[in-house]
């Protein structure tokens, strides 16, 4: 955790959350996390007696006294994001008054729905209507001051018969800078509007580190944090550094496909780390030292296609780009292993040579983009075998078949759902490589199945006619267990049901 303190990401936005019921005395655990290129990493873990404001202040003051520059070399971060806990927010304001505080959008919507659902005098249909006016594009996600005022008037007009809700809404609207998306456009949140990072970290703590059990006491809990907790994050970081996690390269490849239409002529260097990029009828400004773009996607610091195009064409490293270069991977490994980290050359691709001083073009040549040899031969599972180049006659046949399918679509009586599904499948083919990957000839190998006679498979009455073991015996006569309600707020709002909790009463 200490190696995470000097990173630049540790001074931007900090996620904070608390939980309890992790050891026999039910002490409160408060976790601070920073948003990095590969997810959330812990900055500090504080254990205190209860969730009152004074205990929070004592814990935060202790952190400030021992690690005064733990927020990226600053004495306070730019933003704290938390749920609406008055004790926690009051303590943050007392210890770090310079930092801005934001509310998690999910917790705001969940608290609003719980209040509406528990209201006895409202009709069920009205509860869902008020919630949709509050949560949708109306109030929380208003994109301008005019739209916000119109949404406010519309909501107050429809709920004028419920003065207690009007009072609650007006009081909460007084804190609009904490939860309305419109007032976050000038803040570097890296497109994080919820504290899902801290929610996931609490689940990792209880489910993975503690294995859904309680520690014997606080000392044993500290042992878990110093041992299992640190080892868990070290392992995950090194997996990203050694490309064992494909999510980063998949995300980068997805953004890169969207930015493939940009050329050098679309970019213009404005000096002072500023670049102008032409995108259709619009022009956007990219600030490379911060990692922001003036487009709607990258305005708050998220990685967008315009930044990806700049990264590909100018070979410039951005602070918010996925870690796909050897330099980025080496930094992750250094964060995970410290002085035991291998040298930078260890993270270079086998076929590429990278200069240690500058980022060259081959730093962005990922193994996933390497073209497959047309005459490749392989006997491994899922590999291309005997791929021969296509002839002109075969190419003409394919074009004729596509014309025939065009005529079939014109007269076919398709449903809306089947039409949407067909469009989605066709939209997956954007480049020549996409077409080759979909219809490439692959060798199929099936293992781990019992060899049985074909007639025995044919006699099976189930829909899945395979060689799997069929469950035998009588069906249970006991009553079916009730299905747990899904933790999906929008779905439960539409069904007029209370939303499920994630961590139980101790969270």
TrEMBL record:
<keyword id="KW-0862">Zinc</keyword>
<keyword id="KW-0479">Metal-binding</keyword>
<dbReference type="InterPro" id="IPR018289">
    <property type="entry name" value="MULE_transposase_dom"/>
</dbReference>
<feature type="domain" description="SWIM-type">
    <location>
        <begin position="284"/>
        <end position="315"/>
    </location>
</feature>
<dbReference type="InterPro" id="IPR007527">
    <property type="entry name" value="Znf_SWIM"/>
</dbReference>
<keyword id="KW-0863">Zinc-finger</keyword>
<protein>
    <submittedName>
        <fullName>SWIM-type domain-containing protein</fullName>
    </submittedName>
</protein>
<dbReference type="Pfam" id="PF10551">
    <property type="entry name" value="MULE"/>
</dbReference>
<dbReference type="GO" id="GO:0008270">
    <property type="term" value="F:zinc ion binding"/>
</dbReference>
């Amino acid at each position: 955790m200490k190696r995470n303190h000097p990173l630049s990401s540790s001074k931007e936005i900090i996620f904070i959350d608390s939980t309890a019921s992790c050891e026999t005395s039910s002490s409160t655990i408060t976790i601070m996390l920073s948003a990095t290129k590969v997810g959330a990493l812990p900055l500090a873990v504080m254990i205190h007696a209860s969730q009152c404001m004074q205990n929070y202040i004592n814990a935060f003051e202790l952190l400030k006294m021992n690690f005064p520059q733990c927020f990226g070399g600053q004495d306070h971060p730019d933003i704290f994001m938390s749920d609406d806990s008055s004790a926690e927010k009051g303590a943050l304001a007392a210890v770090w008054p310079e930092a801005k505080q934001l509310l998690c959008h999910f917790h705001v919507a969940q608290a609003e729905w719980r209040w509406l659902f528990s209201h006895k005098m409202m009709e069920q249909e009205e509860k869902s209507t008020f919630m949709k006016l509050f949560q949708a594009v109306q109030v929380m996600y208003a994109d301008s001051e005019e739209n916000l005022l119109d949404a406010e008037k519309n909501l107050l007009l429809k709920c004028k018969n419920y003065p207690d809700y009007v009072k609650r809404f007006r009081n909460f609207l007084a804190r609009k800078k904490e939860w309305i998306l419109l007032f976050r456009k000038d803040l570097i949140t890296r497109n994080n509007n919820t504290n899902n990072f801290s929610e996931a970290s609490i689940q990792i703590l209880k489910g993975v580190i503690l294995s859904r059990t309680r520690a014997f006491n606080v000392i044993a809990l500290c042992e878990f944090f110093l041992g299992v907790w640190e080892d868990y994050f070290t392992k995950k970081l090194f997996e990203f550094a050694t490309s064992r996690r494909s999510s980063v390269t998949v995300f980068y490849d997805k953004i890169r496909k969207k930015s493939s239409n940009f050329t050098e002529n679309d970019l213009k260097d404005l000096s002072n780390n500023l670049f102008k990029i032409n995108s259709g009828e619009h022009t956007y400004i990219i600030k490379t030292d911060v990692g922001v773009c003036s487009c709607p996607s990258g305005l708050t610091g998220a990685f967008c296609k315009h930044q990806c195009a700049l990264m590909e064409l100018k070979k410039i490293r951005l602070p918010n780009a996925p870690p796909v270069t050897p330099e980025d991977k080496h930094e992750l490994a250094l964060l995970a292993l410290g002085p035991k980290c291998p040298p930078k050359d260890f993270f270079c691709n086998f076929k590429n040579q990278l200069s240690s001083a500058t980022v060259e073009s081959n730093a962005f040549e990922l193994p996933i983009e390497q073209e497959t040899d047309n005459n490749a031969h392989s006997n491994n599972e899922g590999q291309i075998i005997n791929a021969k180049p296509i002839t002109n006659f075969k190419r003409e046949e394919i074009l004729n078949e596509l014309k025939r399918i065009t005529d079939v679509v014109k007269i076919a009586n398709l449903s809306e759902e089947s039409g949407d599904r067909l469009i989605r499948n066709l939209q997956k083919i954007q480049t020549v490589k996409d077409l080759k990957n979909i219809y490439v000839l692959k060798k199929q190998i099936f293992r781990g199945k019992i060899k049985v006679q074909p007639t025995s498979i044919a006699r099976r009455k189930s829909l899945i006619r395979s060689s799997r073991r069929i469950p035998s015996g009588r069906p249970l006569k006991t009553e079916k267990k009730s299905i747990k309600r899904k933790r999906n707020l929008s779905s439960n709002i539409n069904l007029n049901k209370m939303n499920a909790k994630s961590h139980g009463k101790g969270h």
